[in-house]
Amino acid sequence: MPILLGFINIIGLFLYFRDSKDNGNRVSFIKSLLTFSVFVFLVTEVSAFFNCLNSVFLIISYLSFALFLCGVVFLKKKWAFVHLSNISLTQYLSGFNALFFVFLFLVLGFLTFYVTPNNTDALNYHLARADFWIQNQNLQHYPTTSPFQLYYNVLSEYFLLHTLVLAGGDYFVNAVQFVSMAGSLVAASLIGHVWGLSKKGQGLAAILVFSIPMGVLQSTTSQNDYLASFYFICFLFFGSLIFKNKTTIPDRQFYWAIVALMLGGFTKYTTFIYSIGFILLYAVFVFKNNWKAALKIGFISVGLFLLTFSAFFYRNFIVFGNILMPSPGSLLYYNYRNEQAGLKVTLSNLSKIVGNHIGLPFNSWNYAYDGFIQGFHQFIGYDLNNQASTFATYNTLFSIGEDFSGNFIHFFLILFCACWFVYPKNRQSQVKKTVLVYFTLAVIGLISYASIFKWQTFHSRTQLPFFIGVMPVAAFIGMQVIKNRNRLLNTLITLLLISTLPFVFCNTLKPIIPAAYFFKKALVYVPHTIGGRESELGEKEYKELTGKGYYTKTTSQDFANVAYQIKPNVSLAERKEIFRILDRTAYYDFARHNIFERKKWKQGYFTFDDKTYKAFNGIFASLRNNDHNLGLALETNWVHPFFMYGKSKYGNSFRFEYVKYPPELKAIPNAQKSFTYSALVTNDSLIINKLAPVTAEKKQFDNMTLLLLQKPVNEVFYK
Predict the structure, then answer these.
(1) CB neighbours of 535 closer than 8 A, spacing ≥ 6?
(2) What does the alpha-carbon distance between residue 631 and residue 480 come to, in Å, rounded to a whole number?
(3) Is pLDDT of 675 > 90?
(4) For 567-571, which contacts have Cβ atoms below 8 Å and span 24 or more sequence positions?
């Protein structure tokens, strides 16, 4: 299977780097992942430039690279210097904790490969854009109604593209983030090594990273947050070596650090934001000691940045006239940045970021913070839900979900770290000062993030790099407190591993144990908002919940078409009544399912949504033998499943394209290519009426209308 070539290349790179006396197993591992990332980047960009982004080019590239590595590694017998027998988790963890960790790691690995990719963002744009690139055999922008498919950073999707092509399907796409988690654990432990932590302390750093709830959840998805976090923690590791050695010239560690930074930024711009303090400090340090070297480092950094981003920026510029995004008047414009600036905006967003992470499955706790944050905003004189700096009505929520979960324990560990440094004796030694500077720069990164980007309910995952980056600090301070009390250390690690159990086994999108419903019922935990799931609630229940004043319509911007927010200070008796009303509908059915109910791989895309699953089955069962060109005039979250269903039915002859999109995209090369379709999926009544004269049959599947046309057409509709 071609996908094995990827693993062979990574192993070959590992063996190559392991030959050097300067590299242990851990350093070799992260260097091999970084080098492989550069390989993926180069192969994708080069093949796309020549419009040959296809299985033939990729397989030849992987095979050639594998043969090259075999020549370098095996023919020169460098493998003889590898001492894999030195790898032992018991150097870093107690025997019990090592087994416990391996068990949880294997369970996450099982979820990675067993569960169909089903995250909404992954299906709507992460995987969808890779599907379109494969179809077009290039990376140029294409017709779509989703802005996320075009100008969002792309490196994660390069990996998804390679996985889709080499595996012949999406069976391994979740592995990208899973491997990123493994690399992040290793890099975090290495930072502890730089600071002089014992192996047990380095093990604590790795477990602190592993047990981050959002990290656990992200490690099995097809999103990009853990990949960006991996590059960020690698940047911090190599940067730590630079500062430890007080390097003022571009040496090997500098090149590894700058490569990691560029890869992270190419995955997600927030990597640059979290790195800003470290970058500025290093720039001042080098310029102060060797201004000529500073200029050289500056030129190298700018050069690598341009090399990495130039093609991507060019693709944006020729379509939008802007290297980053469309103008505000565009239908594709989507603004994450704060529209106001100042101390009040930063404080507001920071207080809401805190709320992202301290939610518990206890309404009284969450309501208490709701009250606090409202009072805080009154104190600073700023609207809590000001749409210039926020996307949705603020509520303190608890969720075991891949887009919403907070990091409760780790947030308070970070707070403890800040308090620990307040005492002068904890800042006396040189290594403690180094750790304090590192911690301060990481916090500056988070403050910069809050100052630049609007707050969103699901943004705790975009803060994952910050949490991962700070965990080595928590490990360092933890070892200062624990000292040589191994029993206390082992107990702490055991408790951290236990804390991951709900997030490993009860992920709402990948539940092994469907415990969420029973916990909600026992704790009488009711939703802060209802809306966007109208099909699960009857009209009677909506009227009852809103008529009794339990929920009122929210006026703040939200992603649901209609949203109702729970009233303030709802009592226990009222919560019981709300739960009873919701429980007699299908509202909580989602929480009663588990992953083993899936009968077929395709069923997993829809995450227990049988209605949509049946609709897709109906659509593709209705398509005729010659309907291998399918048009889409519908905004949907299920873009990737269309590709997978189509390729399953028609093979590589299947083509799927948007035929309704903003007019600014009609001049791009991929829109100019001829596309005739004999079937169309839409819910636009105007389009249905316009195509009525050439429609042979019309079928309704849930909210999607399938038009089977009498003959192929190439008509395009503009929004």
Answers:
(1) 586, 611
(2) 62
(3) yes
(4) 568/367, 568/370, 569/367, 570/363, 570/367, 570/526
Lowest-pLDDT choice from 27-31, 77-81, 546-550, 627-631: 77-81
Beta bridge partners of 530: 564
Residue 457 has a pLDDT of 85
pLDDT of residue 81: 55
Q: How far, rounded to the nearest angstrom, does the alpha carbon of residue 617 sit from its chain's CA centroid?
A: 29
Q: Is the pLDDT of residue 554 over 80?
A: no
Closest residue by Cα to residue 112 from 658, 588, 604, 529? 604
Do 642 and 630 touch, CB atoms closer than 8 A? Answer: yes
Length of the chain measured in residues: 719
192 CB-near residues (< 8 Å, 6+ apart): 201, 202, 204, 205, 472, 475, 476
The residue behind tokens 């603004």 is 335
Mean pLDDT of 292-306: 92
The secondary structure of 590-638, three-state, reads HHHCCHHHCCCHHHHHHCCCHHHHHHHHHHHHHCCCCCCEEEEECCCCC
C-alpha closest to that of 523 among 531, 534, 515: 515
As a whole number of angstroms, the distance between CA 318 and CA 435 comes to 45
Please give the C-alpha separations between residue 56 and each of 1, 61, 155, 396, 659, in angstroms, as whole numbers.
Answer: 13, 9, 21, 50, 29
Residue 704 β-bridge partners: 701
Alpha carbons 463 and 256: distance in angstroms, whole number: 23
Whether 163 and 4 have beta carbons less than 8 Å apart is answered as no
Q: What is the C-alpha end-to-end distance of the chain, expressed in Å?
A: 43
- In order, the DSSP letters of 445-507 are HHHHHHHHB-B-TTTTGGGHHHHHHHHHHHHHHHHHHHTT-HHHHHHHHHHHHHHTHHHHH--
Closest CA to 225 of 322, 312, 313, 121: 121
Distance CA 186, CA 203 (A): 9
Give the separation between CA 119 and CA 108, rounded to whole angstroms. 16
Q: How far apart are CA 578 and CA 211, in angstroms?
A: 33
The DSSP letter of residue 124 is I
pTM over 0.85: yes
**Rounded Cα gap, residues 607 and 218, in angstroms:** 16
| Res 490: pLDDT | 96
d(Cα 566, Cα 50) in Å, to the nearest integer? 55
Output the DSSP codes for 249-298: S--HHHHHHHHHHHHHHHH-THHHHHHHHHHHHHHHHHHHH-HHHHHHHH
Per-residue pLDDT tens for 478-521? Answer: 999 998 899 999 999 999 999 999 999 999 999 999 888 888 88
Query: Which residues make beta-bridge pairs with 717?
Result: 660
Query: What average pLDDT does this structure show over 227-246?
Result: 94
Cα 57 off chain centre by? 28
**Gap between the Cα atoms of 465 and 688, Å rounded:** 46
Q: What is the pLDDT of residue 594?
A: 92
Q: Which tokens belong to 630? A: 């399918």
Q: What angle do CA 27, 18, 85 make, to 5 degrees?
A: 95
Dist. CA 510–CA 657, nearest whole Å: 30
Q: 28-52, pLDDT tens digit by residue?
A: 999 999 999 999 999 999 999 999 9
